Amino acid sequence: MKLGGVPRGDLRLLAPGLLALALAITLATVLAVALLRQSQHGQQAQRVHTQELDDLRQQLAQTRRHADWLARHAAEFRALQVQNLLEHEHRLHWLEQLDALQLAQPALQLRYSIAARRIVSTAPGEGEAALMASAMTLNYLARDEEDFSRVHARLQALPGRLLPRQCRLARQAASGFTVSCRYDWLTIAPLPPSGATP
């Protein structure tokens, strides 16, 4: 008997070859599917790595911009540090120095008051820092203009930035003159949390 024109005896001889061929085709198909999946996984991994690389490049660019900004403003920052304008106000130091001045020169009859710190303005951009001011009134008796200049110079030497707002000098008959001044002590500090006192 013949099957498809091939004698049965010949089919038995061809069976091992056909079986090997079928096995080879099956293995080739499995291998092709595995390679396709690996290729797809590799492409996905490459997309992920490419995205990570792009993210790192963006972070590097941002860090470089920040470093450039810091380099451009470093001198200004150091100047503010030297003037003790940054972070906190030096209220206790101011009070101690004013009290020491009164003890050293009781004839001045020094009287002063320093108000609570207030926000004058916030920094442009991110708004994380603010210019703060503590208003101070200062009254005393000066024998002459040199007393006035010495007191003013001593105040200017204290930490923070002392900004004179107004000074009035009124001549007294024989005892010199009275001095009445208003100042703002300026500092730069981070903005306080909402609802907190500066």
Q: Characteristics of this structure?
A:
27% strand; 7 strands; 198 residues; 2 domains; Alpha-Beta Plaits; alpha+beta; 5-stranded antiparallel beta sheet
Can you offer a commentary on this structure?
Strand 6 (161-172) and strand 7 (176-190) form a beta hairpin. It is built from three helices and seven strands, in the order ββααβββαββ. Helix content is 51%, strand content 27%. Strands 3, 4, 5, 6 and 7 form a five-stranded antiparallel β-sheet that branches. Strands 1-2 form a two-stranded antiparallel sheet. By secondary structure, the chain is an alpha+beta fold. The N and C termini lie far apart (107 Å). The protein has two domains: 6-76; 91-190, Alpha-Beta Plaits (2-Layer Sandwich), CATH 3.30.70.
> Total number of β-strand segments?
7
Number of domains: 2
> In the CATH hierarchy, what is the architecture of the largest domain at level 2?
2-Layer Sandwich
Topology-level CATH name of the largest domain: Alpha-Beta Plaits
- Helix percent reads 40-55%
Largest sheet: 5 strands, antiparallel
- The helix tally amounts to 3
Strand fraction equals: 25-35%
Q: How would you classify the helix and strand content by structural class? A: alpha+beta
**What string, H for helix and E for strand, traces the elements in order?**
EEHHEEEHEE
Low-confidence stretches: none
Give the overall form.
rod-shaped
Terminal CA distance: 107 Å
User: What is the level 1 CATH name of the largest domain?
Assistant: Alpha Beta
| Arithmetic mean pLDDT | 81
CA gyration radius, whole angstroms: 42 Å
